[in-house]
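the two lines:
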Amino acid sequence: MTKSLNKSWLFLLVTLLLLVLAACSNTTTTEESEPEKTTETGNTEEGTSEESASGGISGDLEIQYFVGGYGDAWWKEVIADFKAAYPDVNVIEHAGPNINTEMNTRWISNDPPDVVYIDGAGSSETQMIADGQLLDISDWAKGLTLEDGTPLLDSFISPAEELDGGKIYSLPLVFDTWGIWYDSAWFDAQGWEIPTDFDTWLASMKQIKEEAGIAPFNTTGQYAQYFQRGVLNPAFAAAGGEQLLNDLADGVVEAWEREEVLAVMKKVEAIVDAGLVDSGFAAYNHTQSQMNLLLHQNAYIPVGFWLPNEMKNDTPADFVYGFVPTPMNDPGKSMALIPDIRTIAIAKEADNPEAAKAFLEFIFTEEYAQKFAESTGAIMNMKNVDLSANNRVPDFLKGINDMINEPGQIEIHNRNTPEGDREKEIAVEITNEIKIQIVEILLGQIDAEEFVNRMTNKAKELRGM
Amino acid sequence: MQLDSLYPYVERVIDVVQSKTQKYLFLAFCLLPTFIMFCIFTVYPMIGGLYYSFFKWSGTSSVMEFIGFDNYTRMLSDSVILRAIINDYLFVFIKVFGIMILALFFAVALTQLRIKEAPFYRIVFFFPNIMSVVVIGILWQFIYDPNIGLVNGLLRAIGLEEWARPWLGDMTWALPSVSIPAIWAGIGLFMLLLMGGITNISKSLYEAAEIDGASEWQQFWKITVPLIWPQIKTSIIYIVITSLNGSFVLVQVMTAGGPGVATEVMGSYLYQKAFEDFQFGYGAAIGVLILVLSLVSVIILQVLLKKEKVEY
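prediction for all of em together
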């Protein structure tokens, strides 16, 4: 009796242990542990064979793409078309708003998907390049041409970035940019002019403050990078060009000491001193500040192209989105646009790089650029795509697309990826510091001189000076 | 009768019924699963965190570089760390005082004042404990909203317009403003804990004190507080530990550490470094700092709050 009791205890104990170990085991295969939003399209019968009729491209092709403000309609359509063109390729999609986090363990264990669209929280192209996770596609990309024979690399609005002495690790897919948004229907009704430079912008804000009784400018204090990217960066670029923009972001001490920087910050100070900034901005996250714009509690807000898509469920029927490149430029000078590019790349450890290359080549066409503008509200990073005849593209996008393709009205300045570990770290620290100081100056706690002083000191500290 | 005094009898009964082997097997059956879970979900991540703190690692790739104590020496020159520690302890201080004073007040009121609706209030006060911290954070964000918020609305309604301000966007008021929801959400649990202690105090003690002419206030300080001191001590230590480890959630939801670094706490800074700046090793080092500070704080509190056990 005692023995059998002993045995049953032992049996229970062993079973429990096994259950615990099984639950915590990480030896399950990738196929079994794929995230919920993973879907497969197309034939699975071909398995992983690399030989087939469609140009020798076949097998599994894993694509990771973040689904945010742009939605996933474009991706679904493109992948379906790709599948039709390459019937022997079995496309496995890993998509969703948290996909970067969900796929993180795959990247850490050197078992990444083949194609990755780099966007959203938890992903950084700079970091991926520094960690050697992306395939060098320089030679292959240089040989790509569009249907009309134009080299693909020459047809980008913002060029593919070359690092490490000319190496290309990704193709710039989405052309997004920051600028100032307003309700153009409200502006028309009130007879308010759209600003074209800093003087007209300041005058416009003062007029709105007086006539509507509101603080016309708002931004999110919780994510002060909105003001950095939407106002300061275009202002620095308009004042000192691409070099100044990059030097400041990279923490070059001499750049922070230049008089153009102080002049830009004086403009910010002028906006603050005139009481034009919403007094609650520091408390707002991005959606709260955007909501205030929709409710006409403010008139101007710096955001990227995704704003209309992001706020579409809350947008009043009579609200018409208007967009202007940040008017921080001096009168007579061009407005500056800093592209915020989202790239697509192939993993260095991709199992099927040939299919991955075929996919990248497949998506860069005018047809998909049109569809991209229709379904996302942003522009695919391709020149000479005529959106004017497309009724499904929002007006603000047509306007900005025209500006981009007609040089003179605006100037495009690119923010380049800093090279080297230390430079990358300095850029991160400078961004963190600038975010802190932005809140201080917009709250009126420091003036332009103090802002510049603090940033210069930070740059000196980071550079060991 | 004290529970401890029962153990010898229970042991004797077990000895009679079961053999020693059976006893150990039974104990192992009860303890082992919990111990294994504890090792997997607490000890292993703790050691993992300590291990990663010695590396330069983005947290997103297999590339790791051993850098010894570099992450720790970096903390010494990081001004945000110092600010985060100060904010953390300010948060703890406000929370401990806020919760303990209010929880004690309500516990005494609901037990001593013989209020008819006491069970109702017990439920109402406990209610925030079953709400997610994220929901609490969002709810209070609306309450503090500069334009449509309840706080500013009330201030304006009673003619105190000049007191109205963007609470969460104000450098001075942001941290106290984040602490208030934490106090609001914490009262219920500790109130119940203290009520348990108070109801265990014999009524005869209060009757005797009353006959001797002791005022209510004297009764509170000379009878109630000494006799529920173990519960008060447990509550304070629990609030300190949970605040140092968990203040991050409320801060992240309500202010994301802002404005500037006005509400930055160690947890939110850890999150920023590890998951936004891709400096996982440095984030892990901040995690170790939180662990060390929590341990030191608890040890100091144990000494400070040590009192002889009181029995009347």
